[in-house]
Amino acid sequence: MKFGWDAKSNINRVLKSWRSFDDPSPGEYTYGVERHELAQSFIRKKGVSTFRSDPWKTKNDVEYESGNLTYTTYRITATEEKATYFFSITNESFFSILRLSYTGVLQRSTWVPKPQQMCKRLRDRVLPHDTCGSYNVCGAYGLCDMDTSPNCVCTWV
Q1: Together in a domain, 122 and 138
Q2: Which keywords belong to this entry (predicted)?
Q3: Which string of DSSP letters, residue by residue, matches the chain?
Q4: CA geometry: angle at 15 spanning 13 and 16, to 5°?
Q5: Which positions ≥6 away from 70 have C-beta within 8 Å?
Q6: Which domain holds residue 49?
Q7: Which of 31, 44, 65, 140 is a plausible cystine mate for 15, CB 3.0–4.6 Å?
Q8: What is the pTM of this model?
Q9: d(CA 155, CA 143)
Q10: Looking at the structure, do residues 95 and 135 belong to the same domain, yes or no?
Q11: Exposure string over 23-61, b if 16+ CB within 10 A, otherwise e
Q12: Are residues 119 and 136 in the same domain?
């Protein structure tokens, strides 16, 4: 699976949600990689950000390969011409699904042969993983803290 933006072909591949639980037509949410000053991944609802990943760690052209576990490999590429994420299964006993739910939750599920079950993971979690993981949840001058109630604190004095 590969998605992201490529300037040469002017193609931006994104993952789209279903319209509803039982309607597979295109929904309101997309997940993709975007190149700004630094590349990042976003979940958007009708074009408006609901989740944003941490920026990828470099401004320079980079091709980063990691995740060479017993069954997966992934590659992140961020150059002036493209920002892409590529994921593949290297062991045919495993399979993996990256899905964006109709409610905007991103989740990777991987079939593990032993103990023969689906393991739900995206770095051992779904995205966004809590209230503070949602984009702009506390507004322009707010700070979100999951250990306080309410979660949002105004930083404007």
Answers
A1: no
A2: Disulfide bond, Signal
A3: -EEEEETTTTEEE-EEEEEETTEEEEEEEEEEEEESSSEEEEEEETTEEEEEPPPPS-SS-EEEEE---SSEEEEEEE-SSEEEEEEEESSTT-EEEEEE-TTS-EEEEEEETTTTEEEEESSSS-BS-SGGGSTTTT-TTEEE-TTSSSSEEE---
A4: 120
A5: 90, 91
A6: 2-126
A7: 31
A8: 0.70
A9: 7
A10: no
A11: eeeebbbbbbbbbeeebbbbbbbeeeebbbeeebeeeee
A12: no
Q: Which two tokens stand for residue 145?
A: 């803290």
Q: Could you check whether the bond before residue 128 is cis, i.e. omega within 30 degrees of 0?
A: yes
Taking only the tens place, the pLDDT of each residue in 36-79 is: 777 788 899 999 988 888 777 654 444 444 444 556 677 778 88
Cβ pair 49, 137 in contact under 8 A: no
* pLDDT digits 0-9 by tens, 76-103: 788 888 888 887 777 777 777 888 999 9
Q: Are residues 54 and 95 in the same domain?
A: yes
Q: In this model, does residue 10 exceed pLDDT 60?
A: yes
The dihedral over CA atoms of 134, 17, 71, 75, expressed in degrees to the nearest 10, equals -70
Burial of 149 (0-12, 13-18, 19+ CB in 10 A): exposed
Place of tokens 């984009």: 135
